[in-house]
Amino acid sequence: MLKLFSMTGFARVEGAAGAWSWAVEARSVNGRNLEVRFRGPPGFDGLERIAREAAQARFARGQVNVSLQARRAETAGAIKVNQEQLDRYLVLANELAERGATPPSADGLLGLRGVLETGEAEEDGDGRALAEAAMAQGLAQVFDGLKASRQAEGAALGLVLQGLVDQIDTLTREADVQAAAQGPAIRDRFAKRMAELLGEAAPSDRIIQEAAVMAAKADVREELDRLTGHVAAARALMTDDAAAGRRLDFLTQEFMREANTLCSKSAAAGLTATGLALKAAIDQFREQVQNVE
Fold this sequence. Notes:
Blueprint: E1 9-17, E2 20-29, E3 34-39, H1 46-58, E4 62-72, E5 77-81, H2 83-98, H3 106-110, E6 116-120, H4 125-180, H5 182-198, H6 204-217, H7 221-237, H8 245-265, H9 269-289
């Protein structure tokens, strides 16, 4: 059973406690290592440490961005009169009244700029601590959601990788069949070339000897055996419980090394074409592996 996790995912959680409500979002993208970036509300500095620890407990790689926005309910604020500002207005109003102006009404005075102020109600320490604890729980929930999102993405990604490994396996088997015909093809081509140069004087034993040397240089058995072993290793890694991204990335380099050597040793057009198809499939595999945790 495939057990791959992607490094791409998204989750969102909302909550409330007391006078506070909040929403937290977590999204992740590819990264060589685990990197957590946290942005939270002022006054809740302890939440960043909690977010980092929660991410480290769940993920091995990826760039994780966490945004937590919180606000207090408006009813938590208290309206008060700025007495100093009101006194200034009253002095000015009295001076104007002495000159014949109409005295101001109470609602008119209260409507003047700066007379009424909305201040935050005093918040007890227990209420703030309760809100912070609830936000910390929300962070745990959003990271669980992010992990589930990355797992679902990894399941889809695993099917793509599995198909590519099957393709590499099929091409390796085709190359095995084609490579078996390289020896006789090299001998016949060498004999024809010698006959063109020396005519009937070309010694058959020399032809056989030289052809054998050329065939040995063109032998791709070791490369094919290693490719077969890499296919088995890739399938094992994709069912491993541990994070496999780094190991699959390294294995991709080994795949490509063998495919390059096979192409360089090829002495037949068919084998070269198969080798190039192998390289294309391996390159596709490499691109997809970049998304694996």
